[in-house]
Design brief:
Helices cover 48% and strands 19% of the residues. With 197 residues, the chain is α+β, with helices and mostly antiparallel strands. The chain has a single domain, classed as Beta-Lactamase (2-Layer Sandwich). Strands 3-2-1-6-5-4 form a six-stranded antiparallel sheet. Helix 2 packs antiparallel against helix 3. The N and C termini lie far apart (66 Å).
Length: 197
């Protein structure tokens, strides 16, 4: 079975809707909106036009470089998002943990039969998740987090899906990098404003 996500996005004006959501994300981040709120809006658009029940998620790499933190997942069950918040990256830590560890895309066609998912198969089953495609978000060779698409049935990406993921990951990466740059600048300005001893 191949996904209809990319086909749905390219039908009936969905291209324009997706482009609008990407621009809204970037404008929102530049305008100072919370990153999670801005990402939620983009992910909702992608989910709404998907014809196969896809749910999207963004996890951010923690400052320690070893754990992934929940950032945006507008439609995943909250209990699932809470359970994976803070997972340590590793070769057998689901799709996202492995994608961050290997710094390459990890496709789990069928979570119930994927050895990387063994510690989380019960959690995924309870959440109604049967497939997960995760892609590391890397900007200037720096790992920022992961972008994942979950499905309620076993599923493999088509070439069009992979192209769509590439566009989305680059957009999300730009937004994360911009927000981090702004936070660094704000911290530097605050430090300069502090009176000396």
């Amino acid at each position: 079975m191949t996904s209809t996500t990319a086909r749905a996005l390219h039908d009936g004006g969905h291209d324009a809707r997706l482009l609008g959501a990407q621009l809204e994300l970037l404008v929102g981040v530049v305008s100072g909106h919370r990153l999670s709120q801005a990402l939620d809006s983009l992910l909702r658009v992608v989910e709404e036009v998907s014809e196969d029940g896809m749910l999207a998620s963004v996890l951010l790499l923690d400052d320690d470089g070893q754990h992934l933190r929940h950032c945006a997942a507008p439609s995943l069950p909250p209990a699932y998002s809470a359970a994976i918040d803070g997972i340590q990256i590793g070769p057998a830590v689901g799709s996202c943990g492995a994608a961050a560890y290997f710094r390459r895309q990890v496709i789990a066609k069928d979570i119930a039969h994927d050895p990387r998912w063994m510690p989380f198969q019960g959690l995924a089953r309870t959440a109604g998740l049967q497939a997960c495609w995760s892609t590391p978000i890397i900007v200037d060779d720096e790992l920022l987090g992961t972008f994942a698409m979950y499905y309620p049935r076993p599923n493999l990406p088509s070439d069009a899906d992979l192209a769509l993921i590439d566009v989305l990951v680059r957009t999300v990466g730009l937004a994360i990098e911009r927000r981090r740059r702004d936070e660094r600048m704000e911290a530097e300005l605050a430090e300069r404003r502090e009176p000396g001893p």
